[in-house]
Amino acid sequence: MPDTRDILKKIRHLELKTRRSVETAFGGQYHSVFKGRGMNFEDVRAYSDGDEVRFIDRNVTARTGELHVKRFVEERELTVIVMVDVSASGAYGSAALSKRELAAEVGAILAFSAIRNNDKVGLLLFSDQVELFLAPKKGRPHGMRLLREILYFEPKGRGTDVALALEYLNRVVTRRAVVFLLSDFQTGEFAKALGVSARRHDLVALPVTDPVEEELPDLGRVVLEDAETGEQIEVNTSSARARTAHQRAMERRRLELDQRLRRARVDTVPLRTDRDYLPELAAFFRRRERRLALR
Question: What are the pLDDT tens digits along the chain (295 aa)?
């Protein structure tokens, strides 16, 4: 574990790095994509020409004998939850960043974008258990704490249970929230919990992968160990057949995850440790803006 000075230095460096992205690119996009998507019921009033029929309040109309419509006002603030998988597999990274470090940087950009827009941000860290939940709050000091916990929290569990984390989210976050789920999704079945969360919240999945996990390099005979279970297996990576079989298995796994997320109508932002995450985030914001413009 690094000493306190090293921790503070890295957190400060990461804050400055992500702040530039927020101020130059994502702050305004975040506002247009998420801000004002939620509407709160205010009261009812008499119907006027041009009012949408779908907002007619049938109960009040029946009671008074005159058409009345519900009136809504834009939410003044959003609640944002950043969910981060802190299982043992997140420590792996064949490129400049580990999967957990990549999750920390992206989580920081999303958190500081929300804070810049005066929204509340909460944090849920999970492995095969819920490790930490920080209730949504505003302000830079809270954002700095979130960043520190994502980077340096020491989890008790080693595995990944996305279903458990989503079920916990559904219990403790009762107000509709924007939820960013960062994980490598090395988990068991979670379709049911995913469906519930996607209906209750604006859920965005950010699968985090490393290139070596998807495509084995030719290194001869090596022993591979599952970071979460400790299971070991010897693989001859010089075998083209073995490398191809592994690549196909990883591709099937990716396609199954994509299909599961698509069925639940969850937006997806794929992240890789060997690629710049900023273009992926920018593309996601543009897709959301275009889709909202068509509504």
Answer: 556 677 677 777 777 777 777 666 665 667 667 754 455 556 788 888 777 777 788 888 898 998 888 776 555 578 999 999 999 998 887 888 899 999 988 988 888 888 888 889 999 999 999 999 999 999 989 988 998 898 889 999 999 999 999 999 999 999 889 999 999 999 999 999 999 999 999 999 999 999 888 888 888 888 777 777 778 888 888 888 888 888 898 899 999 999 999 999 999 999 999 999 888 988 888 888 787 666 6
Q: Which residue ranges does the chain devote to CATH 3.40.50.410? A: 4-34+76-209+265-293
Q: Which fold has domain 4-34+76-209+265-293?
A: Rossmann fold (3.40.50)
DSSP letters along the chain, please? ---HHHHHHHHHHHHHHHHHHIIIIIHHHHHHHHTT--EEEEEEEE--TT--GGGB-HHHHHHHSS-EEEEEEE-S--EEEEEEE-SGGGG--SSSS-HHHHHHHHHHHHHHHHHHTT-EEEEEEESSSEEEEEEEE-SHHHHHHHHHHHHH---S--S--HHHHHHHHHHH--S--EEEEEE----S--HHHHHHHHHHSEEEEEEEE-HHHHS----SEEEEE-TTT--EEEEETT-HHHHHHHHHHHHHHHHHHHHHHHHTT-EE--EETTS-HHHHHHHHHHHHHHHHHT-
